[in-house]
């Protein structure tokens, strides 16, 4: 009833789609005959129910008796002059004769077949592969939340078949930018990130939305990315990436909010913002029939104030994200961006470049000189985790200056994989078969031959010491330096 016969009716499912009820009209629009065939297998009374029906939308007409016809047509079984679906085995037989996919595996669902599709609606010059690539791009850019890996296993598996050949649909985790969008939405599900609130409405509505932001660095993906490249011509966003995907509870992309860009264009951030159930209807009212914006002109009262404030709040959160990556760390981040541009795949994520060592009073070290009673500074971090190439081999390095005049100084280095959230990865949570991080050795005064193997350095020499760790492809590695006991 809802899909075949009713158009323009208000939504009758809380938090559901179909705000206007006109979206299904695209099926008829794509058909040059204005016709579709709908074949379903669903659960009914603990059994399976097969139903088949045809429908069409055409122009209005007047018949020979002067009756005005709406242009709506149906094919099925006639009961009391009303067309109903063909059901059961007869429906299966007709579907098979029409060459429809059918439900031989008894998986429930719905097949909508567009009769005589108009494949020239886009300017593709007769190249249907171009059209298929565009369709795939639209699926990724506007329906990626349905592709995201969910704790409950729900979602949609998309596929496009062109003349018997299926297009590749890699998971979001294997694509630049989309992998970080997926992480941001998973952050919303896990209640990580930041809640959108307004003190004037908190008592009545509570939280109004939830935002999660992740850093993104497309250049960290090494090797060819043919699918990613095919998604670019029709992409709604482009580098420098500083975009938040806005959506309601249905988790369909409304649009991408562009925030303040990062200081270096090689590094960006992406996020997901999802409204809460309590105010979802306000944001639904803000959407035009195209569902591609949140507009406030027709809103009043609390709805208008909340939708308007959500935009300025998102802008503030984006500025906060940029500020958090600037300041003392911005020079290192920019240096990494320049390095990634020249080295291509040999890069590390920006989160692995923040300062990691602090000069602290030396534990267990004996000072040669005593005076004020204060322990002298033992070392200072002068160059934080960075990628270097020695010969043809990349490494991660951090340099420190030993500044105290001491008998023995003990420095311990630790290498960690840094996740997109900025947290260190627990070694026990690493993917099966993944390479492990390892501190290789320390060397003195820029000479790798003058070195001490392993992560622990015991020395009485002042000057520049550099610790070197193994470089890992496609991950960020951070080196931290701390003082130990003699």
Give short descriptive properties of this protein.
single chain, alpha+beta, five-stranded mixed β-sheet, 9 helices, 24 strands
Outline the structure in words:
With 486 residues, the chain is α+β, with helices and mostly antiparallel strands. It is 21% helix and 29% strand. The protein is built from nine helices and 24 strands. The strands form seven sheets. Strands 1, 2, 5, 8 and 9 form a five-stranded antiparallel β-sheet that branches. A hairpin with a 2-residue loop joins strand 6 and strand 7. The longest helix is centred in the middle third of the chain and has 24 residues.
Report how far the terminal alpha carbons are from each other: 80 Å
Mean pLDDT across every amino acid position: 82
Class by alpha and beta content = alpha+beta
Judging from the principal axes of the Cα atoms, what is the shape? elongated
Cα gyration radius (Å): 30 Å
The count of helical stretches stands at 9
- Uncertain residue ranges: 328-335, 344-375
Largest sheet descriptor: 5 strands, antiparallel
Task: Name the helicity range.
Answer: 10-25%
Please give the number of β-strands.
24
Tell me the β content: 25-35%
């Amino acid at each position: 009833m809802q899909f075949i016969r009713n158009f323009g009716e208000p939504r009758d499912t809380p938090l559901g789609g179909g705000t206007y009820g006109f979206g299904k009209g695209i099926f008829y629009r794509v058909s040059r005959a204005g016709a579709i065939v709908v074949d379903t297998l669903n659960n009914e009374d603990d059994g399976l129910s097969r139903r088949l029906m045809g429908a069409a939308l055409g122009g209005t007409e007047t018949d020979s008796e002067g009756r005005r016809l709406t242009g709506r047509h149906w094919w099925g079984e006639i009961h009391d002059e009303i067309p109903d679906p063909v059901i059961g085995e007869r429906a299966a037989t007709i579907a098979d004769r029409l060459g429809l996919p059918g439900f031989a595996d008894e998986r429930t669902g719905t097949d909508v077949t567009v009769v005589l599709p108009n494949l020239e609606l886009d300017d593709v010059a007769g190249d249907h592969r171009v059209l298929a690539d565009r369709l795939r791009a639209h699926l990724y850019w506007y329906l990626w939340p349905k592709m995201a890996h969910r704790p409950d296993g729900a979602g949609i598996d998309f596929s496009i078949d062109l003349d018997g050949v299926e297009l590749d649909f890699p998971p979001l985790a294997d694509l630049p930018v989309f992998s970080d969008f997926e992480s941001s939405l998973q952050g919303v599900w896990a209640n990580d990130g930041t809640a959108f609130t307004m003190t004037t409405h908190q008592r009545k509505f509570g939280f109004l939305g939830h935002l999660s932001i992740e850093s993104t660095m497309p250049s960290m993906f090494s090797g060819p990315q043919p699918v990613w490249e095919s998604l670019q011509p029709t992409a709604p966003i482009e580098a420098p990436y500083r975009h938040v995907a806005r959506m309601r509870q249905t988790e369909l992309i409304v649009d991408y909010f562009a925030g303040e860009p990062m200081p270096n264009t090689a590094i960006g951030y992406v996020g997901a913002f999802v409204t809460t159930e309590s105010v979802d209807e306000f944001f639904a009212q803000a959407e035009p029939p195209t569902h591609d914006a949140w507009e406030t002109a027709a809103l009043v009262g609390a709805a208008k104030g909340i939708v308007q404030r959500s935009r300025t709040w998102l802008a503030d959160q984006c500025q906060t994200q940029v500020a958090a990556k600037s300041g003392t760390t911005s020079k290192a981040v920019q240096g990494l961006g320049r390095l990634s541009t020249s080295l291509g795949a040999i890069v590390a994520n920006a989160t692995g470049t923040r300062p990691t060592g602090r000069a602290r009073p030396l534990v267990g070290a004996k000072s040669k000189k005593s005076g004020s009673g204060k322990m002298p500074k033992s070392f200072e971090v002068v160059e934080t985790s960075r990628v270097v190439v020695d010969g043809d081999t990349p490494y991660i390095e951090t340099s420190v200056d030993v500044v105290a005049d001491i008998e023995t100084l003990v420095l311990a280095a630790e290498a960690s994989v840094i996740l997109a959230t900025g947290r260190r990865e627990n070694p026990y949570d690493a993917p099966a078969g993944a390479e492990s991080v390892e501190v290789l050795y320390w060397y003195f005064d820029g000479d790798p031959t003058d070195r001490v193997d392993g992560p622990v350095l015991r020395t009485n020499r002042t000057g520049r010491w550099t610790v070197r760790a193994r470089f890992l492809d496609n991950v960020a590695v951070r080196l931290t330096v701390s003082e130990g006991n003699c």
